[in-house]
Amino acid sequence: MANQNYAEVAKAILSAIGGAENVNSAAHCATRLRLVLKDESKVDQAAIEKMDIVKGVFSTAG
After folding, report:
1. Distance from C-alpha of 16 to C-alpha of 36, rounded to nearest angstrom
2. Who's near 51: CB < 8 A, 6+ residues apart?
3. How far is CA 60 from CA 5, 33, 37, 40, 57, in A?
4. Other beta carbons within 10 Å of 26
5. Looking at CB atoms within 10 Å, which of 25, 36, 40, 51 has the fewest?
6. Residues paired with residue 34 on neighbouring β-strands, in sequence order
7. How far is CA 26 from CA 1, 22, 40, in A?
8. Active-site annotation, residues
9. CB 3 within 8 Å of CB 9
């Protein structure tokens, strides 16, 4: 992970979730990033799951 470019990863995740305008709120802990999105239909879940740094994706309605 030392070679990971976190700025590029963040840009890729942001793009895959529909951009910054699709984010209502974000929170994180040591192991998870939790996002509340305005429109989940804009999410490219397959693209997120293909990212090596992402260990899982979970979505709940509302």
Report:
1. 14
2. 9, 12, 13
3. 29, 14, 11, 10, 10
4. 12
5. 25
6. 27
7. 23, 11, 14
8. 29
9. no
Question: Which residues have C-beta within 8 Å of that of residue 9, sequence separation ≥ 6?
Answer: 51, 53
Length of the chain: 62
- Strand-pairing partners, residue 35, are 26
What the block records as the tokens of 58 is 């979970």
The answer to whether the Cα torsion of 61, 20, 8, 16 is positive or negative is positive
CA dist 11 and 7 (Å) reads 6
DSSP readout, 19-36? -GGGEEEEEE-SS-EEEE
What the block records as the tokens of 10 is 């963040």
Q: Is the pTM of this model over 0.85?
A: no
Grouping H, G, I as helix, E, B as strand and the rest as coil, residue 53 is coil
